[in-house]
Automatic annotation (TrEMBL):
Organism: Smithornis capensis
Pfam families: CaKB
Coiled-coil region(s): none
Protein name: KCMB1 protein
Keywords: Glycoprotein, Ion channel, Ion transport, Membrane, Transmembrane, Transmembrane helix, Transport
Family (UniProt): Belongs to the KCNMB (TC 8.A.14.1) family. KCNMB1 subfamily.
Transmembrane segments: 20-43, 166-187
InterPro entries reported for this sequence: K_chnl_Ca-activ_BK_bsu
């Protein structure tokens, strides 16, 4: 009687462990799919792939402009802010080009190097832009990214999804997938050992 209870409890434990392993594998597959349709397209679409040295030529803060200038934007997304323009000398080609914060900045407003968050108030935005401008004037040389193919003549300060960020995004679903497969393999080994013991 006690033996039957132990076997039943063992089978229940194996079933729960197997469900856990399958759940982990399923969740990792969903995470892979989500990353594949959100982050990967932005990474592959970016043409600013080569790092070089940029030297600041001039920094201007113009009157307030409306953001964004992209088509299909809602009226609630349009807000005025001072327009920061940073022009740099691209060391790789010697050209004078405009610097943008990220790829998204160029899409949102190609006239400005920096696009603030609309949740910030006007005083915070003005202070932040002035701080950024003073930093560019202080540090004349820095690393930036440009398009080696020449499709984009401008440069960006940082990529939204660099290679390290993409690898980090795939790290967690990979660990979950590996853990789920390990749990399933251990359950199958346990079942095989139990069957082998019962046969002997």
């Amino acid at each position: 009687m006690l033996g039957k209870k132990l076997v039943t409890a063992q089978k229940r434990g194996e079933t729960r462990a197997l469900c856990l392993g399958l759940g982990m594998v399923a969740c990792s597959m969903m995470m892979y799919f989500f990353i594949g349709i959100t982050i990967v397209p932005f990474y592959t679409k970016s043409v600013w792939t080569t790092e070089t040295v940029c030297k600041v030529l001039k920094v201007n803060i113009k009157d307030k402009v409306l953001c964004p200038n992209s088509e299909g934007s809602d009226d609630e997304d349009i807000f005025p802010y001072p327009c920061l323009q940073v022009w740099v000398n691209l060391t790789a080609s010697g050209q004078e080009v405009m610097l943008y914060q990220t790829e998204d900045t160029l899409e949102r407003n190609p006239k400005c190097s920096y696009v603030p968050d609309k949740s910030e108030n006007s005083k915070e935005v003005k202070a932040r832009i002035e701080t950024i401008a003073s930093n560019f004037k202080k540090y004349h040389t820095f690393l930036c990214y440009y398009d080696p193919g020449g499709m984009q003549t401008n440069v960006i300060l940082s990529r939204l999804y660099p290679p390290k960020g993409l690898l980090f995004a795939f790290l967690w679903p990979t660990l979950m997938f590996t853990g789920g497969c390990l749990v399933i393999v251990l359950v199958k080994i346990s079942q095989y050992v139990s069957v082998l013991s019962a046969w002997q």
